Amino acid sequence: MTLPxxxxxxxxxxxIAVSAISLGCMNLSHAYDVSPSEEDAxxxxxxxxxxxxxxxxSAALYGGGKNETLLAKAVGHRRQDYHLASKCVLDLIDxxxxxxxxxxxxxxxxxxxxxxxxxxxxxxxxxxxxxxxVPIEESIGALVRAKEAGKIGAIGLSEMSAATVRRAHxxxxxxxxxxxxxxxxxxxxxxxLEACRDLGIAFVAFSPLARGMLAGSITDTNFAxxxxxxxxxxxxxxxxxxxxxxxxxxxxxxxxxDIAPAQLSLAWVLARAPGIIAIPGxxxxxxxxxxxxxxxxxxxxxxxxxxxxxxxxxxVAGPRYPxxxxxxxxxxxxxxxxxxx
Length: 341
Known about the structure:
Residues 21-310 form the NADP-dependent oxidoreductase domain. Helices cover 38% and strands 16% of the residues.
């Protein structure tokens, strides 16, 4: 695949150079507050491509397939302009979240995604989560067969541990590992970033703005009904007030640097390693442009040190997920999370 030239810095992902800051499409259909109108979402997706974003990230889970359908309608006619990623294993069926990594389920999920995306080929196809009831080797085998059939280009993993990544990579080269990573979520630093570096795997950072906490826009927890942050411990009291104080210190540092808090967070993420790609999501064209501009920033070492001091080990209050959803996360826990468990 040859993508058009982009004014943005690029980084390698599965043999393709994509924009270092790309676009996570989840919140156009799913998860946070109220989704934008279809017209506004279509406008944002096209504007992202217009300003140089060359990688779009979706999943079967997002809106129960609605996100993939949106991408087809919005930018399907520009398929040559972007590298497309989607995901399987996690799905939303009849309103219920389903985790199923069996090969036959993966094959069926892929066919439904291809139909919704109105394409015969997905450039990067992730296992969204690890199904602990199915050996990773069997799930990867299904993806290898899909690749051999010409339906996907590269294989990825999401929210998986270094040990799982290495097992999967032994079956077939993994192109990308996607996990949550930002100044306030440092779990990939335990082992996954090192595994990606050792194996030549791109690391894709989702929620690089800490689910909006480091975007300078959250001051309370008055989220819309159904927002996935409502049950998250870090957004519940007394944790929220403590974490908001950290965010305010972070915002003050961004102001000193004369950049937006979101730009500080994104520049920090990109500075961690040359193999990292960030995929912030947004419903706002203004925020999209602000985010993308961060790809050109180079933070001074003392600014990076100050961010690390604000979010020193143990500084953030509360685990990432409630107990139930955490059982679907294979990523290593930090020492303070292990102590809490």
